[in-house]
Amino acid sequence: xxxxxxxxLASALARLPGLGPRSARRxxxxxxxxxxxxxxxxxxxxxxxxxxxxxxxxxxxxxxRAPCGICADHRRDPRAICVVEDVSDLWAxxxxxxxxxxxxxxGGRLSALDGVRPEDLTIGAxxxxxxxxxxxxxxxxxxxxxxxxxxxxxxxxxxxEFPVRVTQLAHGLPVGGELDYLDEGTLAQALRARRxxx
Length: 198
Ligand SMILES: [Zn+2]
Description:
Largest sheet: 5 strands, mixed
CATH class of the largest domain: Alpha Beta
CATH topology of the largest domain: Dna Topoisomerase Vi A Subunit, Chain: A, domain 2
CATH architecture of the largest domain: 3-Layer(aba) Sandwich
Distance between the termini: 60 Å
Bound molecules: zinc ion
């Protein structure tokens, strides 16, 4: 039996996505055996991120500075905004390195079942960004789920009043597919073949 402290660490790690109790225990043991080379390093990196963590006031990305690295990057095209459900989708798309514009994180998806309404997402902030002008294209990069597509349709309607081209990721995304789980080639293909909404 491990001590209570070790058990606490294992149960905290077991809550991480992709880790269950068994893998968490193995990770704990692995860390305990490498106190100086791995445990201290992990603690340092976590503390640093925790202290500096901020949500970008413009796009909703999570970074260690505000505005985030993407919003602050002047080489990126501010005339194209790619709208995603979550930060994990932003990171997945950005790993594919094909989209050269800026992003907007909604903070979820519309869901009648979970009671998520438009005002629960950052839709107002998105419309404000587009309304300020200087935006030519809004790419709707919702997940290929029913709720993701409902959200995309809702956004496309709300964006009709602005003089922008609204596009969405090409079909060919697996139905029910979450962007975060797609390989970069598939994502890049969906982005390259994006088409107008409607
Ligand atoms: Zn940002």
